[in-house]
Design brief:
This protein has 94 residues and is α/β, with parallel strands linked by helices. Helices cover 28% and strands 9% of the residues. It has one domain. It has a 3-stranded parallel β-sheet.
Amino acid sequence: MRHPGAGAAKAVDRLAGRGHPPDVGTLRYGTCSWSEKSWVGQFYPPGTKPVDYLRHYATAFDTVEADSTYYGIPPPDRVRNWAAVTPPGFVLSS
């Protein structure tokens, strides 16, 4: 029987870049979150819905902190979605 969190673990591995460590000296720029509603119209295009924030964020930055992990372990489906809407090599930290 397959472990129910196996898909989420693979998504976390991809987001963390496991198996593909960044070059020594790689500097990444990002923010501590991607969910700031006041960024709509400033950074996010006007009318951007919260569900689309991370996808748009990942077009400008290659890393972000998932501040929601401070409150608890995110559900596997949420982690899989983060992996699905970000490009390969995107680094999500907590």
